[in-house]
Design brief:
Distance between the termini of chain B: 20 Å
Largest sheet of chain B: 8 strands, mixed
Order of helices and strands of chain A: HHHHHEHEHEHEHEHEHEEHH
Structural class of chain A: alpha/beta
Number of helices of chain A: 13
Helix content of chain B: 40-55%
Order of helices and strands of chain B: HHHHEHEHEHEHEHEHEEH
Helix content of chain A: 40-55%
Bound molecules: guanosine-5'-triphosphate, magnesium ion
Oligomer: heterodimer
Largest interface: A-B, 48 and 47 residues
Strand content of chain A: 5-15%
Strand order of the largest sheet of chain B: 3-2-4-1-5-6-7-8
Number of helices of chain B: 11
Shape of chain B: elongated
Chain lengths: ~300, ~300
């Protein structure tokens, strides 16, 4: 069955070990095969998985694990620790410029959740940090993209800067920053159109916006359901734009969200926020530790192991 | 035939690096398929089948195995004798319902399908059944303007089932041949939202017993293993009759439809290859299998 958790996956192997006097390297190999499957089913990139398994194996064949009374649980523990390490234990915060406004640019593939995240982040900044953002409608391509942001702006009771869909997105970004300066706003959150990382023209447009307004923060919005392609997307956006962090959206679904690991492991960019629903208050700071056990499909297993 | 040749070419590449059928070769093949998002289980199944077959036929050379690989892959996508064209009403209006999770491309696909029918000379109406997402109605209206098709809508926040009821009456009175129904994106684990979708379908059925003639599940090619869960749950809720695989113009391969096809027996009917009205094509399994191996 797809989406079996790691603990379930390991169960068969663990039962076998139980009856044995000692755990061998072959047993560890078998456990590692199950770990590998669990990670692949969670959409962790296969190259990342390969490297990861090698690393964990080295630790797992070490004496502390094999000689312990609960080798299976110890393996889970090692895997979990290494995953957290890979994802970066510390929580990363959003940038804040010394001299306002702080300019934030939201980028990513089509439909990832950029526009929604702009609204959510605005809400978060006002509620949690007492900041006043200005939203900028720089998606001139998608039908009704501006209407969407304006509707969200109304819901938030926050201003939206727009020049319609005939203007150059670079001018829209510049205009928004100028207005924010005039009105002493703390943040400018720029919504950009969804685009493929291999679309040279549109990626060039993002570079021009970046050049023009020098954002403190470029956030890559990644759909948590993304499969193996997540690394290509993240690497490519990062190479072309030097991205500061990622936002993982749609984590309110039942996806394991292995993309979180892939993105961080391959590009080093920290995941800063998690989207937990469609509503504007459903954005949360990202917690790497929780994500690790979600990817493994562990639920509360880990806390049980910790107690044991 | 051309795509088959090119597919063989890609396989040859793998064959050139691994001449002997051994564990290393199978490992690389496995990685290739997993890298294309083919379901983990389906890949394991396929590799096992290939291993058994290689043993049985005493195949030692990878070049001998190549045709078997593409054959088995294509088999998983194409059930013989199956129809992957759109089902239409015997007489009267054809109703097509579009469903799927958030942001996969439902509304855009409706715009594209509307354009196709329009070109064929059909009279098309679109129903703005996404009353939830900000700007969703306006988005469909823009597509309506662009393609030259009427949109039936109510206010944001209204009951989507009521919109469908309205749309059917209005489309009938306009003498439409095709009604395309947009719905709000919803994650498959949201029980209430899935119930709402069931209701939308029921209302359509009450008005036209054979309708909807198609329920198309839109899947995003960048989606990984979760697409399987999407397909299962949407099928349970709405009895999905076909899949539209969008965003294949990117670098993702959309291999998960192999698993979906294999386990759930839902045919892929269209692929989306861009954001414009003309970027929609009928699904071609050979082409698809070939592109799985494209760098
Ligand atoms: N369930 C859920 N849905 C989300 C989340 N974030 C965004 N969405 C939904 O995903 C869909 C796409 O969101 P948008 O904000 O329009 O995405 P976008 O990246 O701006 O899309 P484009 O501008 O077309 O590239 C919408 O239906 C949103 O409501 C989330 O965290 N959870
Ligand atoms: N590159 C590419 N983009 C696409 C394709 N199909 C849709 N899109 C884009 O994906 C984004 C989301 O498309 P929508 O049609 O709004 O998706 P949706 O499923 O209706 O979204 P919600 O209603 O918010 O759930 C838009 O930016 C579209 O232009 C495709 O085949 N290729
Ligand atoms: Mg947007
Ligand atoms: Mg839509």
């Amino acid at each position: 069955m797809a989406f079996e958790g790691l603990a379930e996956r390991l169960q068969g192997t663990l039962d076998k070990i139980k009856g044995k006097g000692k755990v061998t390297e072959a047993d560890v190999d078998e456990m590692m095969r199950e770990v590998r499957l669990a990670l692949l089913e969670a959409d962790v990139n296969f190259k990342v998985v390969k490297k990861f398994i090698k690393q964990v194996k080295e630790r797992a064949v070490g004496q502390e694990v094999l000689k312990s009374l609960t080798p299976g649980q110890q393996v889970i523990k090692v895997v979990n620790e290494e995953l957290q390490e890979l994802m970066g234990g510390e929580q990363s915060k959003i940038a804040h410029a010394d001299k306002p406004p702080t300019v934030v640019m939201m980028v990513g593939l089509q439909g990832a959740g950029k526009t929604t995240t702009v609204a959510k982040l605005a809400n978060h900044l006002r509620k949690e940090h007492n900041r006043q953002p200005l939203l900028a409608a720089a998606d001139i391509y998608r039908p009704a993209a501006i209407d969407q942001l304006e509707t969200l702006g109304k819901q938030l009771d926050m201003p939206v800067y727009s020049l319609g869909n005939q203007a150059d997105p670079v001018d829209i970004a510049k205009g928004a920053v100028a207005q924010a300066k005039d009105e002493h706003r703390d943040y400018v959150l720029i919504d950009t159109a969804g685009r493929l990382h291999v679309d040279e023209d549109l990626m060039g447009e993002l570079q021009r916006i970046k050049e023009a307004v020098q954002p403190e923060e470029i956030l890559l919005v990644v759909d948590a359901m993304t499969g193996q392609d997540a690394v290509n997307v993240a690497e490519s956006f990062n190479e072309q734009l030097d991205v500061n962090g990622a936002v993982l959206t749609k984590l309110d679904g039942d996806t394991r969200g292995g993309a979180a690991i892939s993105v961080k492991a391959v590009t080093g960019m920290p995941v800063k926020f998690a989207g937990m629903g469609e509503k504007i208050d459903q954005l949360e700071p990202f917690h790497p530790e929780r994500m690790a056990s979600r990817i493994l499909g562990m639920g509360d297993v880990l806390s049980l192991i910790e107690k044991a | 035939a051309k795509t088959r040749d090119s597919f063989a070419g890609k396989m040859n590449d793998l064959m050139a690096r691994y001449r002997k059928v051994d564990e290393d070769f199978f490992e690389e093949l496995e990685e290739l398929l997993i890298g294309a998002d083919v379901g983990v289980e389906t890949v394991m199944e396929l590799i096992d089948e290939l291993k058994t077959e290689a043993k049985r036929q005493n195949i030692k050379d990878t070049s001998e195995l190549a045709p078997l690989i593409s054959e088995k892959l294509a088999d998983k996508l194409d059930k013989s004798g199956e129809d992957n064209t759109i089902q239409h009403a015997a007489d009267g209006m054809t109703v097509i319902l579009f469903v799927g999770v958030n942001g996969v491309g439902k509304t855009t696909t409706i715009g594209k399908v509307a354009q196709k029918y329009k070109e064929e000379g059909s009279r098309v109406v679109m129903a703005a059944g996404d009353t939830f997402r900000a700007g969703a109605i306006e988005q469909l209206e823009e597509w309506g303007n662009q393609v030259g098709v009427d949109v039936v809508k109510q206010q944001a926040g209204s009951d989507p089932a009521a919109v469908m009821y309205d749309a059917i009456q209005s489309a009938r009175s306009k003498g439409a041949n095709v009604l395309l129904c947009d719905t709000a994106g919803r994650l498959q684990n949201k029980v209430n939202l899935m119930k709402e979708l069931e209701k939308v379908k029921r209302v359509i059925q009450r008005e036209i017993p054979e309708a909807p003639h198609e329920v198309l599940l839109v899947l995003d090619a960048t989606t990984g293993q979760n697409a399987m869960s999407q397909a299962k749950t949407f099928q349970e809720a709405t009895d999905v009759s076909g899949i539209v695989l969008t965003k294949l113009d990117g670098t993702a391969k959309g291999g998960i439809v192999l698993a979906v096809r294999n386990e759930l027996d839902i045919p892929v009917k269209f692929v989306g290859l861009g954001e414009r009205a003309e970027d929609l094509q009928p699904f071609d399994s050979n082409q698809f299998v070939y592109s799985l191996f494209k760098e």
